[in-house]
Amino acid sequence: MSAPPANVQRIARFAARLVSAHLSRPARRRYAAAKDRESRPPNERVGGQSMQLRTWIALALCLSAPLAAPPLLAGEARKLDQGRNLGTGIASYYGNEFSGRRTANGETYRSTGLTAAHRTAPFGSRIKVRNLDNGRAVVVRINDRGPWTRGRIIDLSFAAAKAIGLHRSGTARVSLTMVSD
Asked: Which label site among 25, 52, 57, 92 has the fewest CB atoms less than 10 Å from its CB?
């Protein structure tokens, strides 16, 4: 096998300089390391077959991880959380202007339903909301995400807000507890 002509070698060196000039310092190091690996005989190369093997093992582990622990269904998650205290904080309610709009789970918001928005509770879960000022409570179903106002922990539908007496003031301190279906 003969060496390539001098002009081809010169063009290859120019291309290598051009590529390395436009690469960041870490990328230039990787490029130089790859070039060094290629120039070694196959039996002295670092990262060849063993690198491929490590890549395949990592890929297999990533793909098999979901099989190791199947996710909980919504009903199973609710059973585990039953009776769990979700904390206390300020609640507010949706105004009637939101009636007819879509919620995060795809339902249409109705101000007459006992529904609510919570940032992390699973859709369909039921939460008991107790007004700490007057002791009144209501059980609502989570069908939306929010509230996105700082300091609020739940947004209630108008009917739920009316049931616990916060529709006049707009906000109230409440405690939240997960309940079973």
From this structure: 25
How many residues belong to the chain? 181
Is the omega angle on the peptide bond into residue 26 within 30 degrees of 0, that is, cis? no
Contact 93, 172 (CB under 8 A): no
Q: Is 3 helix (H, G, I), strand (E, B) or coil?
A: coil
Mean pLDDT of the chain: 77
Burial class of 99 by CB neighbour count within 10 A (0 to 12, 13 to 18, 19+): middle
d(C-alpha 147, C-alpha 138), whole Å: 18
The two structure tokens encoding residue 88:
């206390």
152-156 and 115-117 as β-strands: parallel, antiparallel, unpaired? antiparallel
pLDDT digits (tens, 9 = 90+) for 76-119: 544 555 678 889 999 999 888 888 999 999 999 999 999 999 99
Asked if 153 and 90 touch (Cβ cutoff 8 Å), the reply is yes
| Helices assigned H by DSSP within 40-174 | 49-68, 74-81, 158-164
Q: Is 113 left (phi over 0), alpha (psi -120 to 50) or beta?
A: beta
